[in-house]
Every structure is written in structure tokens, then in C-alpha cells.
């Protein structure tokens, strides 16, 4: 048998085998296709709710602004109960620091010498800007201090000509008057304490001249 006849015979045999396999089908089990996995999503965390200030933080006393001469500030007048123990908000006062002048006993019109060292005439305008009557009572409620000197009582019984600041103010009423104070030196802060509060209601920065 020549080479040509042998190649033809081999080709026929191969073709017959392929036809037989096609007719019988493949015995291999079909491979099941795994469905595509969905991308995993990280669980979302709810945004934290806004927290409201606690009662303790909201009840903290606010810092009192220092008034320079010419400045105006406000404070809430606190009215004590019949026993003078507890205080509740009553009305609103506006205070303007008009001027501050150091004075000698002669200028004040007294023969008394200041116990702390220096008379100070502080001019204020006090106005009731609230809806109820309220009292401004400075005697025994005025203190003076510096960075190096702790708060000292600055009230005096001395007075100069003019309207009295210590009185009861109806809504809308105001008075511009002078307080004669006894301070330990020039400069520093003069504070007014309303009612039973340990926090000053008004703080005035006093010039050193």
C-alpha cells in the first residue's frame, strides 16, 4: 500500500470515530454555571442624633462682659422670695458706664477719708428695659478688684449732688446718677452684684487715670 492510500484510510477512520461520538453524545456531566455573586455592601450606620446640652451645662453661669467707659450692657434683675433665700428672674436692666473719676474727700464733700485708699465717683445710667418693676440697690453690693488684689467691698454712704441710682424702676424708667465708691487704688474692676448671685451682674473696667 502506497503512502497516499494509507493517509486516506487514516482520514476515513478518524472521521468515522468523530461521527460516532457526535451521535452518542458526551457522557460527561454538564458543569453548572455558578451565578455571579452580588457585590457585598457594607452595612450603613445611622448618623448619630444631635445631642442637646445637658441641664448642668446650660445652667452654667455665663461670663459677664467687662464694660469700658461708654459701653452699655444688660443684666437680669433677680427678685428674692419672702424669706430672702431663693431668687427668680424678675425684669431686665440696661446699664451704661458713663464716666469714672477719682476724687478727694473735699471733692466728694466729706471729711471722712477712704478706708481702702481712694474715692471713685462712678457715673451710671440705669434703665429698666423689662416688663416688670425692679430695684437697683448698690449699697453693700459693689466690689473692687485687680489682677493682684482679691475683691473688696467698695460701697460707701457718701454721696454727691444728683439723682439717686438706688431706687425702684418701673418699665421704661431710667436714672443717670453717681456712686461714690472706696477703692484700693487706680484701675481695676468695679462689680455690681444683684440679689443673692455670686456672679456679678455688671462689671466696669476703671481707667488708671
In words, what does this structure look like?
With 209 residues, the protein is of the alpha+beta class. It has 3 helices and 11 strands, in the order ααβββαββββββββ. Strands 1-11-10-6-7 form a 5-stranded mixed beta sheet, with no helix packed on it. A hairpin with a 6-residue loop joins strand 6 and strand 7. It is globular, with a radius of gyration of 46 Å. The termini are far apart. The N terminus is likely disordered.
Q: Give the CA-based shape.
A: globular
Mean pLDDT: 79
Number of continuous helical runs: 3
Rg from alpha-carbon coordinates: 46 Å
Quaternary structure: single chain
Terminus-to-terminus distance? 138 Å
Low-confidence runs of at least 5 consecutive residues: 1-9, 16-29, 38-62
Q: Mind summarizing the main beta sheet?
A: 5 strands, mixed
Task: Please list the strands of the largest sheet in the order they lie side by side.
Answer: 1-11-10-6-7
Structural class of the secondary structure composition?
Answer: alpha+beta
Name the helix and strand elements from N-terminus to C-terminus, one letter apiece: HHEEEHEEEEEEEE
Q: Helicity, in percent?
A: 10-25%
Number of strands: 11
Strand proportion, as a percent range, falls in 25-35%
Amino acid at each position: 500500500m502506497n503512502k497516499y492510500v494509507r493517509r486516506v484510510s487514516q482520514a476515513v477512520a478518524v472521521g468515522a470515530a468523530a461521527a460516532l461520538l457526535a451521535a452518542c453524545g458526551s457522557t460527561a456531566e454538564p458543569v453548572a454555571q455558578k451565578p455571579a455573586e452580588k457585590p457585598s455592601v457594607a452595612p450603613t450606620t445611622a448618623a448619630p442624633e444631635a445631642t442637646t446640652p445637658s441641664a448642668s451645662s446650660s445652667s452654667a453661669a455665663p461670663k459677664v462682659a467687662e464694660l469700658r467707659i461708654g459701653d452699655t450692657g444688660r443684666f437680669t434683675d433677680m427678685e428674692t422670695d419672702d424669706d430672702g433665700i431663693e431668687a427668680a428672674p424678675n425684669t431686665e436692666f440696661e446699664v451704661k458706664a458713663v464716666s469714672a473719676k477719682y476724687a478727694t474727700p473735699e471733692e466728694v464733700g466729706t471729711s471722712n477719708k477712704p478706708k481702702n485708699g481712694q474715692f471713685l465717683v462712678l457715673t451710671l445710667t440705669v434703665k429698666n428695659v423689662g416688663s416688670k418693676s425692679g430695684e437697683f440697690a448698690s449699697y453693700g453690693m459693689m466690689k473692687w478688684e485687680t489682677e493682684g488684689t482679691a475683691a473688696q467691698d467698695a460701697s460707701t454712704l457718701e454721696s454727691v449732688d444728683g439723682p439717686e441710682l438706688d431706687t425702684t424702676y418701673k418699665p421704661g424708667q431710667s436714672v443717670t446718677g453717681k456712686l461714690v465708691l472706696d477703692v484700693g487704688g487706680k484701675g481695676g474692676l468695679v462689680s455690681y452684684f444683684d440679689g443673692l448671685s455670686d456672679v456679678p451682674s455688671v462689671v466696669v473696667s476703671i481707667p488708671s487715670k
